[in-house]
Structure formats: structure tokens, C-alpha cells
Amino acid sequence: MELNQIIRSIQSKQSEISSVYFVGCGGSKADLYPGFYFLRKNAKKLIAGHFTANEFNYDTPAAVGEHSIVITCSLGGTTPETVKATGLAKSLGAHTIAVTHDPQSPLTKDADYVVTHGFHESYSAKVSKPTKVLTLAVEILNAFEGYNAYDHFIEGVGKIYDVIDEATELLLPQAKQFGEAYKDAPVIYVMGSGATAEVAYSFSICLLLEMQWINSSSFNSGEFFHGPFEIVEKDKPFLLLMSEGSTRPMDSRALEFLNRFDAKTTVIDAKDFALLNYIAEDVVDYFNPILIEGVLRIFAEQLAIARNHPLSKRRYMWKLSY
Ligand SMILES: O=P(O)(O)OC[C@H]1O[C@](O)(CO)[C@@H](O)[C@@H]1O
Question: For 3-144, which CATH class?
Fold first, then answer.
């Protein structure tokens, strides 16, 4: 079923939807963020919530019920917390949509609708998960409240994958340089703003802490001046994700400070990929995280090569029960 048909089908069963919850773990939780951010910004009536799955399970929002849509997301579809959240949402009468790479996985058992996404085929396929979740959010707003920039958004979805695949073809030398320059870094701080904030979060917790065992912390560029900037000094390693659009001034302000004290800063900037040449200004905010997450993968791969530490290496995950 097409994404707009899923939402129209829910609407035919329940014309009054008042809340939408986005639930997942780790990288999948972060991939739900652009959709959540979009609804939080644009909805006038709909409540939007974003949860790590066990927080949803242990401290379930009171509004979850027949007037809710719960979108759960898991790449492999087996993460127990997220599988449980889907069942819980269903038992409370919510309309459940599972987003996963594997349509046969346990995640889909209690889902009213299943959305499958690619992953391995290309760099752009790796971000089809957040793109589909974001599109679901746009379809929900359009169906239940109306959304003026809907056509611009759909046009953008039609272009973003090519933008990513073309960008990643040119990025290898820069990514190699990053790998060499940061391979011995004792810590890497990551920040971004707006819909991109959780790309910083997932790069920090998944790519650096989980897959590289590199100490890391992440924060919103807006929070940088409310604590983290005290750590800045010459050659401190930072990765700054700069967005086009509404929150760019927050990223620019952080960059200016990092440069003032000669921090070791790598900037991944949506502007360098001419995002605004492809995506209309009124929807560009939501495409920053898709583009930046897509191109960041190649930086993580090159860091892993330079450190001789494959991204698949784990100490505990999949090896112990926990
Ligand atoms: O997206 P899935 O399959 O639920 O997997 C979640 C797991 O994958 C990661 O996002 C990356 O390995 C972890 O942070 C998390 O534990």
C-alpha cells in the first residue's frame, strides 16, 4: 500500500485522529525524529510524541488510544522493546504502522500496516527509513489538517535520493581525510540543529560509541552555549552538521565559536550539496537530516577503515542477553 493510502485507510476508519507517536530504539529512534519534528512544527491540533520504545512501554502517554496513530520503527524488526511497543499500542486501540526492512519480522505481528524500506542497495537506500517516516508524517498532517506545502514536499522526495547518491560519489577523498584526521581522537563531539539534531545523536551513540568504541557526546547546536562550549579549546574534535533553512543561524553561531578557539572541526554542510537547488525553501528544513545522514555514512565507513575497526564489531550487542 502507498503511504498516502495507508493514512487514507486509517482516516476511513477513524476521522478524528488527535495524536501521533513515533517509537523506536537507537538509530531507528533517531530516524523517526524528522517526522516527529515536522508534525511538532506544523500541526495546529495533532499532538506528536517521540519515544525510546521502553519509555513508551513503561510510561505510556495517556492519550494513546483509538484516536492515535503509533508509528514504530525497527530496521531488523526484532528489537524486543519496539516489538512490545507495537503490541501495547495495538492493545490500547491505536492504529499501528510498523516501518522495517523485514516485512516478515516480529515487529509486523501487531501492525495494522507495514511499511518496508531499503537499506543495503546504496547510500540513499540507507535513509529511505527516515524518508518514509517523514512522508507518513506529512501524509497525516495533509489528511487531518491540510498542509500547504504538500506538493513541494512530494517533489522533494522525488529528488533527494539522487542528490545523496551523487554527493556520496564525490565525497570519498574528504571522508578519507576525516578518517585519518580523527582516527586517534580520544573523543568526538557531534552537534546539529532542527530536524537534524538526532542525526548528531545517532552518529554519536550508534556510529561512534557503539560501532567504533570512541567516546562521544552530542547536543543540539542551540544547547552548545549552555554548557558544552566550556570544553572547547585548540584541537578539540568536533563534528558540526549544518542545516539549510530555519535553524542555520544556530549552527553558524556554534561554528564561529569553534573557529575562534581553533577547535578541530569538520563541518558537513547541506549548503555544500546545494540542497536548495533541489528542494523548495518551505520544506528544506525536513530534508537536511535525510541528506546529512546519507552522506555521513561514508565518513563513518572511512573512520572505521582508518582505525581498522569494522562497523560491525561489537563487544556485547548480539553476544549476551541483557
Ligand atoms: O533498528 P533496529 O533493528 O530496531 O535496531 C536497533 C539497534 O540498532 C542500532 O540502531 C544500531 O545498531 C542500535 O542503536 C539499536 O540497538
Answer: alpha beta
